[in-house]
Amino acid sequence: MDPITAFAAAQAAVKGVQAAIKLGKDIHAITGEAMKFFEAKDVVQREASKPKGTFAKSDTAQAFEIVMQAKMLNDAEKELNNWMVMSGHADLWQQLLIERNNIIQKRKKQEILDEQHAAAKKKEMDELINWLLGGGIVVMVLGFIVWWLTILMEKH
Predict the structure, then answer these.
(1) How far apart are the first and last CA of the chain?
(2) How far apart are CA 148 and CA 119, in angstroms?
(3) Alpha carbon distances (Å) from 24 to 4, 18, 78, 113, 139
(4) Residue ranges of the domains in the chain?
(5) pTM of the complete model
(6) Which residues of 95-128 are buried (b: 16+ CB within 10 A; e: fewer)?
(7) Is 44 exposed, middle or buried (0-12, 13-18, 19+ CB in 10 A)?
(8) Measured over all CA atoms, what is the biggest interatomic distance in the chain, rounded to whole angstroms?
(9) d(CA 20, CA 86)
(10) Which of 39, 54, 127, 131 is the most exposed place for a label (fewest CB within 10 A)?
């Protein structure tokens, strides 16, 4: 999902949560919309942190858009937090934050391991290429020596 679609999905999820709250729905009624919100928020944050390859917007405009989207999503998350605390589900909110932090920590560890594995594979491939090139050069030099010796022996 691209960040623009994700941001729109997050806004729609926020509106769904707000409507459910206004109708007096309980925590179970907003679970689906809340999950959509957090999923979309994560996509927006992940995409915002990636380097951009486009020059369609100025750096300042791009930074402004990212900051404003992050603020809107953080404000919506605070509203959801306040509602959960006020409705007697502060413990659920704390569990959510703890679990989210655990998931983020596991993902970051896995990303680091994946990067290290990719770097090790690249190093192995580079070493293999170096050995193959070195071996090819040795074979060429030996072939040249044999050819040169053959020419010298034919002259005698």
Answers:
(1) 77
(2) 43
(3) 30, 10, 19, 46, 82
(4) 3-88
(5) 0.58
(6) ebeeeeeeeeeeeeeeeeeeeeeeeeeeeeeeee
(7) buried
(8) 107
(9) 15
(10) 54
Task: Supply 111's token pair.
Answer: 């990303």
| CB contact at 8 A, 36 and 15 | no
CA distances from 61 to 2, 56, 118 (A): 18, 10, 35
134 vs 116: CA distance, rounded Å: 27
